[in-house]
C-alpha cells in the first residue's frame, strides 16, 4: 500500500528518513541516545488493536492493510500493556481511552478510531498532546439510534416492557398497564443533530407536535421538517415527552437535574438515547418518585454497565436497554467499514474526513501542498538551528507569499510542519498536525502567520515561504535581517524544496540533504577550496551556490551535502582565511 510521499509525517514521528516510510519510524529514547527502530510489526504492517466487537466487514478491511489483534473486555492494565505494541486502536463506547493509555503507548499510537459517534470515552486532550489522531464514524448508526429512540418512546408510552415481564410471569394485568397516546402530544427533542432530527421526523409521522432545542441548529433546518426550534425553557416546560440526543460535554453534563425537572410539565416522560451523563440520575429517581416524571426510557447510563441494584434500572416506571442504540446488524456493519477506512487512511498519512482532533484538510489540498509541507518543515529546522543556544525561541513569524487569495490557500498543514521543524530538533517530542499547536503553546512558542499577496500566476499555490525568529541571537550573523531577526526563505523549484535566501543574501540550494553556510569576502576560488575539502572526505555535494550583496563584497555560500561532515572537516572549512563565519545545519 503506497503511502503519499512525505505526507505520513503529518501524523508520524518520521526522523531523518530519506525515503518515506510506509509506516511510522518509531523513535525510542534509550539510555539518553536516540535509536531509530523500525517497529511497525510483522511484515512492515502496522498493528491495530480492536478492543470492542467490530462488524466483520470492518475487520476484513483492516486485515488487508494491518496486523489485527481483536481483544475484547480488556482491563485497563491489559489495554495499557497491549497498546505499547500498537499503531492504532479501535473502540466503541465501552472502552475508556484515558491519558494512561497514551502514556503507555509512548508515542507509538497514531490513531484511535471510535466505531460510532460519541467520543466522550476518549481523552481528546491527551490524544492531541501525544499527537494521536482521533477519528469516529459519525453517520452509520444514526438511523439505528433514531429507531431505538422511537422504540423506547412507544414502548414506554404503552408499558410494553413491564407488561411483557408480567405476562411472562404468568399474570394477566390489563388495567395495570394502560398507557398514553402519542398523537397530538408535544415531543421536545434536545439536540437537533443527525439522530435528533431523524427522531423528530419519525415522531411527526406518529402525529406528534415536535419542538426542538439546539443552540447550534439552524431554524430553517427544523422548519423544513415541520419542527419548531425553541428555547431550552420552552422545550422543557411545554413538552409531554422529552428525548435527549446531544453529546456529553461540560455544557450538557447533568442538563436534566432537580432544578430543570421542577420546571417541567408534571407527568413528563423522558427518553435518553444519548449519554447517561446528560441526566443527574439521582435527581431523575427523585422526580420519578415524586411523580414530576411519570416514566423514563433509558438506553444509556452514567456508569455502564450499571450496578446490579441500580435503582433507576429497577424502577417500575423505567424501561431500560443496555446501550443498544447503535446495535443493529446494518449499523454495526456500517460503522465497522466507516471506521476501518478512516483508520487505515490515517495510518497512510491521509487526513480522515472524520478527524475529531485535527483540522480536516481535503485530499486535493494535501496533494497540491505536498512539496510545500516538506519545505515548511525544513525551513523550521534550518531557522531553529541558527539560534544561539539559550536564546529561547518564543516569537516566530511565517510568511506565505502567494498569488492566491487568502481564502484559496489553506496553510494549516504548513503551520504545523514549521512548528514540527522548529521544535523537534530541540526537544524529545514528536510533532504532527494533531499536536503542533498544543506543543508550541506548551513551549511558549508564539507562531504568527502573514500572507504576502503577489500579483503573479495563481497556478502555484505558493511563491515562497519565509520563517523569521525574533528576539534571538544567531549562530550565523549573516542570517539576520535588517531588523536583526533570523530569517530564512524557501521555494519549491521543479518540485524540490530549496533554500533561496538567508538573511539578506540570496542563495539557491536544495534542501534534500543538510546545509553548510559560509560567509566570506566574495572572491574567486572559494567554491573550489570548500568543494575540495569536502571531496577529500568523500562528502557528496548536492548543491552549491553563492549569494552576494555586490561583487567583491561579502557573500554567503550555501552548500548542500548528503552526508554530515566530520568536525575536523568543518574546522578545515572554518580555517580558510577568507571565511568569516560558517555553520552546519542538519536537516
Ligand atoms: N445510544 C447509542 O447507542 C447512541 C448514542 N449516540 C449519542 O447521541 C449523540 C448525538 O448523536 P448525533 O445526533 O449523531 O450527533 P450530532 O453531533 O449530529 O448531534 C448532536 C447535536 O447536539 C447539539 N448540542 C450540542 N450541545 C447542545 C446543548 N447544550 N443543547 C442542545 N443541543 C446541543 C449539537 O448542536 C448537535 O446538533 C451522540 O453524541 C452520542 O452521544 C449516538 C449514536 C448511538
Ligand atoms: O455511537 C455512539 O455514540 C454510541 O453510543 C454507540 O455506542 P456503541 O458503539 O454501540 O458502544
Automatic annotation (TrEMBL):
Q: Which Pfam families match?
A: 2-Hacid_dh, 2-Hacid_dh_C, ACT, PGDH_inter
Q: Please indicate which superkingdom the organism of origin belongs to.
A: Eukaryota
Q: Which reaction does it catalyse?
A: (2R)-3-phosphoglycerate + NAD(+) = 3-phosphooxypyruvate + NADH + H(+)
Q: In which pathway does it act?
A: Amino-acid biosynthesis; L-serine biosynthesis; L-serine from 3-phospho-D-glycerate: step 1/3
Identify the EC number(s).
1.1.1.95
Keywords on record: Amino-acid biosynthesis, NAD, Oxidoreductase, Serine biosynthesis
Q: Which Gene3D superfamilies match?
A: 3.30.70.260, D-3-phosphoglycerate dehydrogenase, domain 3 (3.30.1330.90), NAD(P)-binding Rossmann-like Domain (3.40.50.720)
Domain (ACT): give its ranges. Answer: 515-587
- Please give the family membership noted in the entry: Belongs to the D-isomer specific 2-hydroxyacid dehydrogenase family.
Entry-linked NCBIfam families: PGDH (TIGR01327)
Q: What is the protein's given name? A: D-3-phosphoglycerate dehydrogenase
Naturally occurring in which organism (per UniProt): Brassica cretica (Mustard)
Q: What is the lineage of its organism?
A: Eukaryota, Viridiplantae, Streptophyta, Embryophyta, Tracheophyta
